[in-house]
Sequence to fold (443 residues):
Amino acid sequence: MSTVKLEEIVSLAKRRGFVFQASEIYGGLAGFWDYGPLGVELANRIKAEWWSAMVTDKDNVFGIDGAIIQNPNLWKASGHVAGFTDPLVDCTNCGARHRADHLADTDSTDLEELTELLKGKSCPKCGKQSLTKPRTYNMMMKTWVGPIEDASSVAYLRPETAGSIFINYENVRETMRAKLPFGIAQIGKAFRNEISPRDFIFRAREFEQMEMQYFINPDDQEKSYQDWRDFAWKFLTASLGIKADSLEWHQHAENERAHYAANAHDIYFKFPFGSKELWGTHNRTDFDLSNHSKESKKDLSYFDEQTKSRFIPYVIESSVGLDRMFLAVLTDAYHEEEINGEKRVVLKLKPELAPYRFAVSPLLKNKAELVEKASELFKALKKKHGNVIWDDNGNIGKRYRRQDEIGTPNCITVDFQSLEDDTVTIRDRDTTEQKRISISELI
Fold:
């Protein structure tokens, strides 16, 4: 478990404009969150890193952007209509609803087993032993398409982004003239009507996924599976800069993984509330294309010209939630230090992820010549790098502390010497060391 407390992350996220409670002025809405000015910058950089590594840098992975609402037969074929359920218990005293498996502290969703484990348990909200027996609850959010709300117009907000990948498999294969192995990647919103959203943005009702489905010959499943496991670990540690000792592998036991999966590994991150799932790599076999082929009556088999054989491709899934990755990055980067008896909070983000790469300040904001010089530098850096912030509020020490908290790697100060020799002071976020550098070299 991380030594950082969740309330410290939540406080920083609100105080510095990373994440806000959705509909806060109306009391909020459980399970929904808004990303603020700094949060959207960090989230966009994480997505850009993932897209670059997953799609741009690869010759056989193609991106799509599927619709949030699809034909409901998609979710029937995938098993979501019949089986996308969580175990639910109600409190007859206070009316609160809870995830039965969370209350029982188990991964099992078997109703009989949960009934036994919950005997004598009290409601976490009111403390009374007044819980109902567990029952199943479908988490898909239902809506209606068209002006009439009846059974014929029922549709669902997608509970995952993988569905639109599978039903576009043939479109992508044909238009991109793709041969196995190849992948289809997507970043997008998904919705799950969670019984008890919790742990800040870790478990929410509206969230964003980054998923890739890799279509392969069944004979290649072991090597491909290991390759994508390696990819996930390398991305987290090298591309995002997360410390390896904050991560660990978890292999699904037979009773944990989906019935169709041949193998499943998750990378767990040590969050403040425990070690939890961050990134999943799963061997989904031919379950998805086989079921969509049957339900749609479309032939989704693949003819291999080399072996002269026809088969339904297997799928290796690489799936991660943006919100969980965002929380992991914040948690891993959060540090508290003491300098000269004063507490310093610093986000040691990888520079490429930081909302702002540079902060530019005039030493004194009431000296016109310093402000003018700093403003020229600010505009030049912003034109070149984009993510640059102007900061002239408070004394220079307060500015440094503020920029440390939001993860800005370098603070640049224009002082009186700058007017004489065109040099500035540049301060390193992590070491707090300062050095002088010429403006031309900096730009």
